[in-house]
Amino acid sequence: MPRDLILDSITIEGFRGFNDPQTIELNGAHAIIFGAIGTGKSSTLCAIEWALFGNIAHIKCLESGTQAEFVNANKIDQKAKVTLKLKGDDGDYIVYREKQATKKGSKLTFSTPAGKFEGDEAADQIFSIFGTFEDFHRSVFLHQEAVRAIITENPEDRDSALDRLFGLEKTRELMSKIPLATILKECEKLEAEKMKIEERIKGATQQVEKEMETARKEALDLGLKKNDFNTQECIQRFKEIAKETSSAAEDCGIERPLFSEPATVEDVSKGLKKVKQVIKDCRKQIAATSRLNKLQKDQKQINEAKEKLEDALVELKEATEEYEKLEKEWGTIEQIEKRENEIKMKDDNLRKERETVDSTSKLVADGIEVISKQELKNCPICDARISPKDVLSKLKTKVSITLKKRLSEIDDERNKIREELFQLDDRKNAISKAISMIEKLKKAKDEAENALGEVLQSKSKGSEILLKEAEERLSELEKELAKVGKALNKKNEILQKIEDSTEICGAIVRVLEKEAEYEKIRETFAEEDSQIEILKTQIDEMSSLYTRLQSISEAIITAHRKLAGAFISKGKKKISSYYDRLCGHPYYNSIRIDMEQRNVKGVQKNTYTIRAFNNKEGRETLISTRFSMGQMNCAALSIFLSLSSMLERRPKFLILDDPSQSLDADHKKSLVKVLEDVSLGNQVIIATQDRELEQQIETGFRPEGGYIILNYKGWSKEGPVIEISKK
C-alpha cells in the first residue's frame, strides 16, 4: 500500500464551472488558491473529492435524480471528467471519473503501480487508501461548512459535526434509524386496538357473565355442585320430577299429566313450567275437596262465639260486683231518695225559721229607729214606763248578737244540706248507670248465648251449659282436624318435595341457558377473538423486538460514548495547544470538549459543549456565550487540525476551504504560523477569498520548498481564468 500520497496534478473538464479541459499542475507543492467569491475556487476543490468518491459533501442535488448539477450546463457532450494524479512512495496513482448528465452514477478508473482497476473494484482500492468519504472530510478536507457546523448554536448541528470529525456519524445515524420510539408507538397502537376490541366484547358479554355467575351462585347455594351443570344431569332430574308429579296429580284427584321425552335444556324448561302448573292445580283441588277448611271454619266460629260469651260473662260479673259495692257503700236508690226527702224537709224548716228571724230582726230594727228618733218614756205597745237608753241598748244587742248568730247558723246548716243533696244526686246517678250497664251487659250476654247456640246448633239454655257444649265440640273438631291434617300434610309434603326438586332443576336450567347464551355471544365474536390473538402475538413480537433493539441501541450508545470519549481524551492536549497558538485569548488559554447524553426523540445521543478555561485561576466558560465568532472559529480549526494529526492516513495533503472566516488580523497571522508547522509533514492546499490572509501568507508563510499561488481572475467560456505563480 502506498504511503505519503500527495497531489501532483488535476485535470478538470465539464465539471461545475469548468467547460474545456484545464490541468492544474501542483507537482506536490503547497498551493494557495485565491480569488473572489464565485470564481471557481470551491469547484476546483470539489473536483478532488468528486474524483475520489463521486460525491460532494456540501452540495445537494435538488433538480435531478442523476446529479446532473455536477455537469457544466454549457458542455456540449454533457459529460464531466476529472483526472486526479497523485504521487506515492511507490509510484503514480491516477484517478479518472467521468459522468454523463443524463445517467445516474459515474464511470471510475483507478490506475496504480499494481494495475488498473475499474468500477467497484476501483472504488474498493480507493477506499483502502483514503477510507470513506466521511474519513476524507474528517482528516483531509476541512470545508468552511464544517467549521460553521462546529461553532453553531444549534446543538443538533454541532453534535453531528463533531461526530463526523470523530468518525461516528454513521453510529449517530444508526442510532437515529433504530425505530425504538416507532416500535413503542406501534405497540401502544396495537394495545389500544386490542383493548378496544376487548371492551366491545366485554360490553356485550358483561351482563350475560354477571347473570351466569348469579345463576351459578344460586345453584350452588341450593347444594348443587359444579359437575351437576350439564344437560344429561338436568334431563335425568326432570324425568324423576315428571314421574313424581304424575303420581301426585293422580292422588289429588286430577287428570294425570303427560310429559314429552326431553332431549334439550329447552325441553326441560318447558316441562318445568308444566310441572309448576300441575302443582298449582293440585293445591286448588286439595283446597276444594278437603274437609279441613270446613273444620277450621267451624272451629273458628265456635271459638269466636265462645270467646264472645266468655267476655260478656266477665264484663257482666265485673259490672254486678261494681253495683253491689256501690249499693253496700251508699244504699239503694230508694234509701238515697228517702234520705233526700228527709234533708229536703229539714231545709224547708230552716228556710221558714230564717224568714221568721228575718221578720223579727226587721221589727227590732224599726223599733230602734223609732226610739232613736223620738224620746219615748212609755212603751208604744204596752204604754209601760221605759228607759229609752236601756231599751235601745237591749234591742241593738239582740239584733247584733242573737239574731245574727242564728241567721248564720241557719245558713251553715242549709249549705251542708245542699252539699249533701249534690252528693246524694251523684250517688244516685252512679248507681243508675251501674244498673243500666248491668242491663246492657245482660242483653249482650243473652245475644252471645244465642249466637253460640246457633253455631253449636244447640237448643240448650244457660251460659254454663253452652260453654260446656262448646268445649266438647272444639275437642271433637281438634281430633277431626288432626286426622284430616295428617292426610293433607302428606300430600303437601309430596307437592313441596316436587317443588323443591323443580327449583333445583330450574337452577341447573338457568345456569345451562346462561352458559349457552354466553357461548352464542362468544361465537358471534369469534372473529374478534381471533383478531385479539393476532394482536397479542404482534404485541409480543413487537415487545420482543423492542427489547432486542433496545439492547442493541444501548450497546451502540455505550460504544459511541466510549469512542467519542477516547478521541476527546486523546486530542485534549493538541486541541488546547492549537487553540492557544491560534486564538491567543488574553484570559482563557485552553479549551475542552465536554460530552454528555441527551434524549433525542427517545434515542440517547452524545451531545457536546465546547468550554474555554483559565488554567491558572480554574475558571471556565462556554465559548458560545463569551467568545466572538473569530475566537469560536479558532476553536473549530483547533479541533479539526488536532484530530487530523491524530488519525492514521496515507494521504499527506491537507485541504482547507476558506479557513479564515470571521478571523481578525492577529488570528490570521497566527493561522499562517500554525499552517506553516502543519506543512512540515503535509502538502497544504488553502482556498480563500480573504485578501488579508493572502497578504499574511505572502509575508509569513515560509514552508520548505515554497508554494504556488493559483490566482482565479474570473471566467471565460472554457472555465475559470487561472494565473499560476510560484513563491
From TrEMBL:
The keyword Coiled coil applies. Residues 9-208 form the Rad50/SbcC-type AAA domain. The keyword Nucleotide-binding does not apply. Gene3D superfamilies: P-loop containing nucleotide triphosphate hydrolases. One of its GO terms (biological process) is double-strand break repair. InterPro entries: P-loop_NTPase (IPR027417), Rad50/SbcC_AAA (IPR038729). It holds the Pfam family AAA_23. GO terms for molecular function: ATP hydrolysis activity. It comes from candidate division WOR-3 bacterium. Keywords: Coiled coil. It comes from the Bacteria. Residues 180-218, 292-356, 407-494 form a coiled coil. This is Rad50/SbcC-type AAA domain-containing protein.
